[in-house]
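User: structure tokens for Globoside alpha-1,3-N-acetylgalactosaminyltransferase 1-like, please.
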Amino acid sequence: MALFPLCKTPTGTVRVTRIQLVLYCFLLSLIIYFLHGRKTAASVKSPHPNFHALDRGGVMTARMVVKAAVPQTPVQTPWGAPLVWGDTRNSAWRRAKFAQQGIRAGLLALVVGSYSQFVRRFLTSAEIYFLPGQMVTYYILTDSPRSLDPPIELGPERQLKVVPVAELPGWDRLAHRRMALLADAIKDPISSEVEYIFCADIDQEFVAPVGEEILGDLVATLHPELYGMPRNTFPYEVEEVSSASVDEDEGDYYYTSELYGGLVSEMYTLARTCSLLILQDQANRVVARGLEESYLNRYLIDHRPTCVLSPEYSWWDSALAADVPVQRLVSLGRQCEAYDKQTRERNKC
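Assistant: Done. Predicted tokens:
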């Protein structure tokens, strides 16, 4: 058996066999690989960025603009409610189930001030994509009924009802009053006319089918910029003096106020409860960081939704928005907020 000198020592030259040399090289390579792997792993940064927080008064402050990593698409929440993605087999089953029943649904939007510019685009797109084939009543709460002249042509079993409201100048005032206006409208006339009611921001556009898969007793929609993000990035209200305050150990998701709904009775309870909490904070001169969205999230923590819609049903193109298979309802208003100044001007935001 051949011998090879390995190194010299004070006592002489050490000689080893070929097998010992091969074994030595193998062990040495394992040690180098292990040390390199540990160093690489230790240097990897967390894939979860900090979401920009809402300052007091609702002003957005960017911490880090990194798009959320999209997790695998779960179809169920931790408490067993369906998490809806429109093209899944479960959604197809839900559409078939509700289509056989035949339902009466309402879609409500508040149109005040300059927001009247969005009403025709919203309704025209809803006619194509919102619950096609079902009986739908559009409820437009507005301080400018003439903005709907001439009337928009609607399909069979679709109707439009205009509910006049007092002028509400300023976004802050509007946000504080919307829940109360929603509760009043549900009480009369909505409760006697439809089974389900969905509340949506008017500055949105339906761009793909939104069918019966969205129906449930209490329905909430995941915020597209916070889907897949860690819990500590959710902009819940943290001030304990606020009725919308959320403790650190509370909350599963962060929901957007762009679209939510459910059975008329459930929605009346939601709107009424949130409006009372808002009034309570107003009396104490407290302003929640996310305005009405803060109260909506507080309510949905205490009363978990029976159906949760994925960000497909509330989306806009921004550096933070998670990728989705299909964009179904796009927020034009929040899209403009995501633009830089030059792009805003070009798109007349």
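User: Anything notable?

Assistant: The first helix runs from residue 18 to 43.
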